[in-house]
């Protein structure tokens, strides 16, 4: 007989069930059922205690239907539960999305009154935003162009994102859910190389590029790159 | 309970937005609590004329769709200490984003808190117009002494007669150029009022300062010595029930060649 399609392994992090990615889904379910049943009978004599399992699917992506089927199997048993189901592979869609989020997008267009440009990830903005235009990004916004509209970083609610650059002519700056209206009282705080961020009190604040390490120590790691020497 | 007035014209560019901003400001100067609603969704301007464009966080579409509360969307004009508010239009959608019921609900929510709710109607007679008149108690028709503007005003008066509001519409004649009337090149105030057959609420003289002040985000009524500002202040007083005589045109001195000559000799 062929090797079991569902194999239990103990690791230092806990129990792990590995589902053979070469076996058919049907085989996996039969063999998983068998495994759970035998575990159930073994544990009947020991103290009742919930054990959670990591399930690895190898190079197979389970459909959400099959995932919930597996989750249900565990839910039906008294003492077992699924910690998480993970796979070595992702869909193209997901990978595109990850790329999109990790990329710095370079924009050099004019965002006119009433237009709204939404970007996943960071933006290097070289264009112009007219009064009434909006640039919205889930990541950071680096501005080299001229901003007379609204710039919003960290959408929908990432307050660790920043807006860097001279935006003193903007109507508003927004980060996550925080916003500030720019008028005579605060435009003086913004120059070339100003960093706009959300401080510990959840209020928009202004700093210099030199201060980024203090404000957000992780900022430089996330950009990555190879440094020689 | 306040009164909701819609400012409409049919034709574009006759000064609906300028009139809304100035009448609202004039009423606030008289100590009334005023809320201005911009219904020109997609092409909003009232915020710019009032100099409030950078303060907009939420707009009327956010309120209508439940994304924001009415109080959150109101933009306060700091110059008038709690008297003048603006409910801005949305900019990234169009007039069909709202329906009549939604606008009527918003206006009815505002009326108890304000003495006046002024609704700035978009040009045209489509959905935007229907939305604007839905919550209004009365209409103010703005026209200019131009045949095309008077034609469109006539059409709007006709439409309002089919769906009458609580009170009869009243007329503002905007951008009057006295010298053109004197030369017989443009219709005069009486002629337009008689033609449209509705009560005259006021007249506003054409003045360069209207554009200059609007560019700075300060309505012209704030200039005490300006004739156009005077026109809008008179309109506000008439809305409050005062009887104010119609402004007389500035006497423009027309000197004959002979008088000029005498003047020249006198200088010597």
List its traits.
heterodimer; A: 229 residues; alpha/beta; Pectate Lyase C-like; 2 domains; 6-stranded mixed sheet; 5-stranded mixed sheet; 5 helices; 33% strand; elongated; B: 268 residues; Rossmann fold; 8-stranded mixed sheet; 16% strand
Can you walk me through this structure?
The complex is a heterodimer of chains A (229) and B (268). By secondary structure, chain A is an alpha/beta fold. Chain A has 2 domains: 6-86; 95-223, Pectate Lyase C-like. Chain A contains 5 helices and 18 strands. Chain A has helices at 25-43, 64-76, 92-102, 212-215, 219-223, and strands spanning 6-11, 14-19, 51-56, 80-86, 104-107, 110-111, 116-119, 122-125, 128-129, 134-137, 141-143, 146-147, 150-153, 163-165, 172-175, 178-181, 194-198, 204-208. Chain A is elongated, with a radius of gyration of 26 Å. Chain A starts with 5 loop residues before the first strand and ends in a 6-residue tail after the last helix. By secondary structure, chain B is of the alpha/beta class. Chain B has a single domain (3-267), classed as Rossmann fold (3-Layer(aba) Sandwich), CATH 3.40.50. Helices cover 40% and strands 16% of the residues of chain B. Chain B has 12 helices and 8 strands. Chain B has an 8-stranded mixed sheet, sandwiched between helices. At the A-B interface, loops of A face loops of B.
Strand order of the largest sheet of chain B: 3-4-2-5-1-6-7-8
Do you know the CATH architecture of the largest domain in chain A? 3 Solenoid
What proportion of the residues of chain A is helical, as a percent range?
10-25%
How many strands of chain B?
A: 8
Average pLDDT confidence of chain B is 92
Q: Any idea how many domains of chain B? A: 1
TL;DR of this structure?
The complex is a heterodimer of chains A (229) and B (268). By secondary structure, chain A is an alpha/beta fold.
Q: How are the SSEs ordered, and which strands pair?
A:
The complex is a heterodimer of chains A (229) and B (268).
Chain A (H helix, E strand, L loop, with lengths): L5 E6 L2 E6 L5 H19 L7 E6 L7 H13 L3 E7 L5 H11 L1 E4 L2 E2 L4 E4 L2 E4 L2 E2 L4 E4 L3 E3 L2 E2 L2 E4 L9 E3 L6 E4 L2 E4 L12 E5 L5 E5 L3 H4 L3 H5 L6
Parallel strand pairs in A: 2-3, 3-4, 5-8, 6-9, 7-10, 8-11, 9-12, 10-13, 11-14, 13-15
Antiparallel strand pairs in A: 1-2, 14-17, 15-16, 17-18
Chain B lengths: L2 E6 L7 H14 L4 E5 L7 H4 L10 H5 L5 H4 L1 E2 L7 E4 L12 H11 L5 E5 L6 H8 L3 E6 L3 H16 L7 E7 L1 H5 L6 H8 L2 E7 L2 H8 L11 H13 L17 H11 L1
Parallel strand pairs in B: 1-5, 1-6, 2-4, 2-5, 6-7, 7-8
Antiparallel strand pairs in B: 3-4
């Amino acid at each position: 007989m062929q090797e079991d399609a569902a194999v239990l392994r103990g690791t230092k992090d806990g129990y792990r069930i590995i589902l053979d990615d070469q076996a058919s889904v049907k085989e996996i379910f039969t063999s998983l059922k068998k495994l759970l049943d035998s575990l159930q009978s073994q544990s009947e004599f020991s103290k009742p205690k919930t054990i959670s399992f990591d399930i690895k699917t190898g190079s197979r992506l389970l459909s959400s239907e099959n995932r919930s089927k597996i989750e249900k199997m565990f839910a039906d048993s008294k003492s077992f539960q699924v910690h998480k189901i993970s796979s070595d592979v992702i869909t193209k869609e997901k990978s595109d999305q990850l790329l999109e989020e990790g990329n710095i997008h370079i924009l050099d267009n004019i965002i006119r009154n009433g237009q709204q440009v939404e970007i996943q990830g960071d933006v290097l903005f070289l264009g112009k935003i007219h009064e009434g235009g909006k640039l919205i990004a889930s990541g950071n916004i680096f501005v080299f162009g001229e901003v007379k509209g609204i710039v919003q970083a960290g959408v929908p609610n990432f307050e660790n994102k920043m807006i860097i650059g001279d935006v003193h002519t903007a109507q508003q700056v927004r980060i996550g859910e925080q916003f500030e209206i720019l008028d005579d009282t605060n435009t003086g705080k913004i120059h070339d190389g100003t960093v706009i961020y959300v401080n510990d009190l959840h209020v928009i604040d202004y700093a210099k590029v030199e201060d980024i390490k203090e404000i957000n120590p992780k900022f430089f790691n996330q950009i990555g790159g190879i440094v020689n020497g | 309970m306040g009164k909701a007035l819609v400012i409409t014209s049919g034709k574009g560019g006759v000064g609906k937005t300028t009139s809304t901003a100035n009448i609202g400001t004039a009423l606030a100067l008289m100590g009334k609590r005023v809320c201005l609603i911009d219904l020109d969704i997609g092409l909003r301007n009232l915020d710019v004329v009032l100099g409030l464009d950078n303060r907009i966080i939420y707009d009327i579409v956010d309120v209508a769709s439940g994304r924001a509360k009415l109080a959150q969307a109101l933009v306060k004009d700091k110059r008038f200490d709690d008297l003048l508010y603006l409910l801005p239009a949305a900019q990234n959608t169009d007039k069909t984003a709202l329906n009549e019921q939604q606008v009527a609900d918003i206006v009815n929510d505002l009326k108890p808190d304000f003495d006046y709710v002024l609704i700035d109607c978009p040009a045209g007679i489509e959905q935007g117009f229907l939305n604007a008149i839905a919550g209004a108690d009365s209409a103010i028709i703005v026209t200019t002494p131009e045949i095309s503007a008077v034609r469109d005003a006539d059409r709007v008066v006709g439409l309002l007669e089919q769906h009458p509001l609580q009170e009869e519409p009243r007329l503002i004649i905007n951008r009057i150029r006295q010298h053109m009337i004197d030369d017989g090149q443009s219709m005069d105030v009486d002629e337009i009022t008689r033609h449209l057959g509705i009560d005259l609420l006021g007249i506003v003289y054409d003045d360069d300062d209207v554009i200059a002040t609007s560019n700075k985000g300060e309505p012209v009524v704030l200039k005490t010595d300006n004739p156009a500002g005077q026109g809008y202040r008179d309109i506000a007083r008439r809305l409050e029930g005062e009887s104010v005589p119609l402004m007389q045109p500035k006497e423009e001195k027309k000197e004959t060649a002979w008088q000029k000559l005498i003047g020249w000799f006198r200088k010597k």
